[in-house]
Amino acid sequence: MTAIITKPEQSGELLLKLSRETVPTIDNGKILELRESGASKAQELAIPGRKDEEWQFTDLSQLWAIDFRAPQTVTIDKNALAVFLLPEAKNSHLVFVNGIYQPELSDISALPPGVSVGNLANAQKDVLVNYLGKEKTPEFFTALNQAGLSDGAVIHVTANTVVTTPIHLLFITVVEEIPRFYQPHSLIVAETGASVNIIENYGALAEHCSDLPVNYSYFTNAVTEIYLEANAEVIHTRVQRESGDGFHIGRTIIEQAHDSRYTLNEINLGAKLCRHNLDVLQKGEQTETNLHGLAMIAGQQTADTHSAIYLNHPHGIANQLHKCIVDGSAHAIFNGKVFVPKPAQLTNASQLNRNLLISNKARVNTKPELQITADNVKCSHGATVSQLEADDLFYLQSRGLSADTARSLLIDAFSAEILAKIPLESLRQRLGQCVACRSVE
Question: How confident is the model at residue 207 (pLDDT cuts 50, 70, 90)?
Answer without folding.
Answer: low
